[in-house]
Design a protein that fits this description.
The protein is α+β, with helices and mostly antiparallel strands and 475 residues long. It has 17 helices and 23 strands.
């Protein structure tokens, strides 16, 4: 899961691009990069957070009225600089690209690109496959008379060629900015316009537009493509479209609470999930003295649950705001280190009480296990761990770093076994049926809960990623 941003303007975009990227920092903390175009590409990327990668000197060098930004959360590939985004090629026309997601037929596409198009993909980053696949189809056109239809035809051919989950933004030199999504629309991509001058932007989340002064005009649907040409004219095209399957985890964890995805405010969705979770808590016979959240994504779930139960909500855990999101840390050791640094109980809130702790989800159990110990040491009488998400039993292949069975605490354990592993007095998950009822009018991907992968069997890709993880750990 990464953050992507594209700006198409009549004036230099470097400053605006970096401001916009900062609003997406929560989507990744491994690397950041930007590319601009003024007749040639100017690129800067590196490891770390935005303020670690970019300085004032880079603003002067990133010249141009169009630009792409990327915030990386590594779910596949190495953490070497070559795998950071954006990526670009100089032929045909010059193409620069960023993406969010995972390609599920990675090795098949890489081999086909070399065999059929003589293109060697020398990184393990999925965006290179998308870029080279698009370029390979593009160079088969009449390059002297490239049309808008040609560009959209190349999108369709790329969607047929490359499988998986992806939201893509690309600069086609001297022709425009092109954005498109995978046929299922698994990953989010929003579209905005700055009304005062007609400038156009694409971003992973609508909250970016709020900061930059753009109006959110909606989200790209499954397989949809949008081209902004040199005259700032907007062209829309429906490419390959299959059964919609938007990632429900965007509402649960990844997206900011002030973002709107598919006409739904994320904060409101988390409130609905908290209310729904209350039914399962009652059925389990849990009667807490107070409800607390795991900051910061747990707030709306917890406050809504407390409201539904008629139990006081309190902020029972203090968060160190200078520590990143532990779930998206690149290694298990790093996650455990961040969890220990990030949270500290407020003793007077929890001492002597039955505390219900609400988190967005329980994935590996790292945070939950640590919190149970912290709260008991702070004097809590009982600790119940409540998950706003259902039990995560299957690996994700679409851009969330939970891609092996071994790292999922619920993969082969009962709820009682999970309770024992966490050391909690009770564990309650949101029932999958309850979550699906909330989205009966928005087809979503629930593969990490039920193993129903919208793109079909992913066994080969899961095996490849598991092997890559083991190789990375050995190194």
């Amino acid at each position: 899961m990464c953050g992507i941003l594209g700006l198409w303007s009549r004036e230099d975009v470097a400053q605006r691009l970096l401001y916009g990227m900062a609003t997406l920092q929560h989507r990744g903390q491994d690397a950041a990069g930007a590319v601009t175009f003024d007749g040639m590409f100017h690129i800067k990327k590196g490891h770390g957070l935005i303020d670690q990668v970019f300085g004032e000197k880079h603003l002067a060098r990133l010249r141009g009225c169009s630009g792409l930004g990327h915030i990386r959360y590594a779910t596949r590939g190495s953490t070497d600089p070559v795998d950071a985004q954006p990526v670009y090629v100089n032929y045909p026309y010059g193409l620069a690209m960023v993406h969010n997601g995972n390609v599920t037929n990675f090795h098949a596409v890489r081999e086909a690109l070399y065999r059929d198009h003589h293109r060697l993909v020398d990184t393990s980053n999925d965006v290179a496959l998308l870029l080279y696949a698009f370029a390979a189809h593009l160079e088969q056109r009449d390059l002297a008379n490239l049309s808008i239809d040609d560009l959209f035809d190349c999108v369709r051919e790329t969607q047929e060629y490359v499988h998986g989950a992806y939201a893509v933004i690309a600069i086609v030199a001297n022709h425009g900015m092109l954005a498109f999504t995978d046929p299922h629309g698994i990953r989010p991509l929003s579209f905005g316009i700055r009304e005062k001058d007609g400038d156009v932007a694409f971003a992973s989340e609508s909250s970016t537009f709020d900061y930059l002064g753009y109006t959110h005009c909606g989200d790209l649907g499954p397989g949809e493509a949008v081209l902004i040409d040199n005259d700032m004219t907007i062209h829309r095209y429906q490419g390959v479209q299959k059964k919609p399957a938007f990632c429900v985890f965007e509402y649960i964890y990844f997206a900011r609470e002030d973002s709107i995805l598919h006409d739904r405010l994320v904060a409101d969705e988390r409130v609905r999930m908290g209310h729904a979770l209350a039914d399962s808590v009652r059925q389990a016979g849990i009667k807490p003295d107070t409800v607390i959240d795991v900051p910061a994504s747990g707030y709306f779930f917890a406050s809504a649950l407390a409201e539904a139960l008629g139990v006081p909500y309190r902020r029972g855990l203090a968060k160190n705001s200078y520590i990143g999101r532990s779930f998206i840390a690149s290694t298990q050791d790093r996650r455990e280190h961040l969890v220990k640094q990030k949270l500290n109980p407020i003793r007077n809130v929890v001492r002597g009480k039955h505390v219900a702790v609400v988190d967005d989800s329980i994935v590996r159990g790292t945070t939950s296990r640590h919190l149970v110990t912290l709260l008991r040491n702070a004097g809590a009488r009982e600790v119940s761990m409540l998950s706003a998400a259902p039990a995560i039993r299957f690996p994700c292949i679409y851009g969330i770093d939970m891609s092996t069975h071994e790292e999922l605490i619920a993969a082969d354990r009962s709820t009682e076994a999970i309770r024992e592993a966490l050391g909690a007095d009770a564990v309650v998950y949101q029932p999958l049926e309850s979550l699906m009822n909330l989205y009966s009018d928005l087809p979503c991907c629930y593969a990490c809960f039920n193993g129903d992968y919208p793109t079909g069997s992913c066994s080969d890709a899961l095996r490849d990623i598991a092997r890559e993880k083991k190789d990375s750990n050995r190194n």
